[in-house]
Amino acid sequence: MERTYEAYESIPFARFCEEADLPPELRLSFRTFARAFFSDEADLSTADVLRAFHFYYLSHDHGLLYDYPAGDYETTLLAPIRAHLEANGVEIRLSSPVSEIERGEGKRFRIEREEYDWVVMAADIPGMQSILEQSAWLREVDAELVGNMLALRTSNGYAVWRIWVDRDVRAGLPTFINVDRKRLLDSVTLYHRVTDEASAWVEIHGGAVLELHNYSLPRDLDDDEEIRRVFLEELHHYFPELQGLAISDEVLQVRRDFPAFAPGQHALRPTPEVSVRGLLMAGDWVRLPYPMTHMEAAYVSGVLCANVVFRELGLREERISTVAPRGLLSPKRANAARPALQMR
Ligand SMILES: Cc1cc2nc3c(=O)[nH]c(=O)nc-3n(C[C@H](O)[C@H](O)[C@H](O)COP(=O)(O)OP(=O)(O)OC[C@H]3O[C@@H](n4cnc5c(N)ncnc54)[C@H](O)[C@@H]3O)c2cc1C
Q1: Distance 75 CA to ligand 1 centre (A)
Q2: What pLDDT is stored for residue 222 in this prediction?
Q3: Of all protein residues, whose CA lies closest to atom 26 belonging to ligand 1?
Q4: Domains contained in the chain, number
Q5: Cα(143) to centroid of ligand 1, in Å?
Q6: CA nearest 155: which of 220, 74, 216?
Q7: CA distance linking residue 2 with residue 296, whole number of Å
């Protein structure tokens, strides 16, 4: 995988597509991958796209299947995870942002008057950077590490707009629809077909619950009202049957917390274990030895952090499942029958 980064990391994906002279239809489907990185093709490293291709297309039987819980995330996902953790003695403190990590006295670190031997930095990039900026002693211990982490950046931002409307799209469409962005709209999810709660709303009121996504905000578009207006204009363009719709409720989220996968960022990423003993890194912005991205990367980086702790305590480490790290066309794979999923 590191060889892929050596060869392709500095090449923006837009340039790669131009030089490969891809036909427009193929380029459109490749663009879907750029969107999955919440980036424009010009601000996305070709190596990261190859990593995603390897994961989704070439090595993973379920890589391109969408699956989701039928209920809302609080009921179906977060509450059971919380209950499981609490049943195992975990104390969860919500709405308690960490501002600083101090040197500990009895243990390695202190955070707000409590001491710890291990700290997993699992915030998003803006959160992680604000903690680092407040924790000056870390720079004294490893200036290069801290300098690199402070140089990581987020992509330009994204917008998610959920709307409750009085009419539905035409029949026969899939639940998740990618469109070729004109200026803003990248995809539409027919949310009333996803969650029980939204489908119950439609049962009572008729219409639809739609979720409109933009994965990379144009730099000249940062006003919420304008974002709503352009979303609606493009929704009408692709779904003319929605002309004149009435919106009875809406939630707009505009955020700038998704990592940039731009040329030059990979070299700055920390691995889960860094030079500061006990300080561990987890998240989709961490460098992994496996070809994983997004949620898989965030999850596996967390398991790798846990394994560092287990190792130090002499406990059994968790196994990690990964797709085969080598591609189907890799010369060393020729004639070698390998399972698509390997356990490490
Ligand atoms: C619209 C959308 C669709 C997506 N679809 C997919 C998909 O289909 N498949 C996929 O694999 N991925 C998808 N992703 C990406 C996926 O959600 C992320 O890659 C994943 O959530 C990253 O997990 P994380 O734990 O690294 O960070 P996050 O989930 O961002 O968690 C970081 C947490 O740190 C907290 N935090 C920040 N600062 C502090 C602080 N100072 N103190 C304490 N806590 C702090 C934040 O509040 C946040 O809860 C999608 C993302 C979005 C926005």
Answers
A1: 18
A2: 85
A3: 283
A4: 3
A5: 27
A6: 216
A7: 18
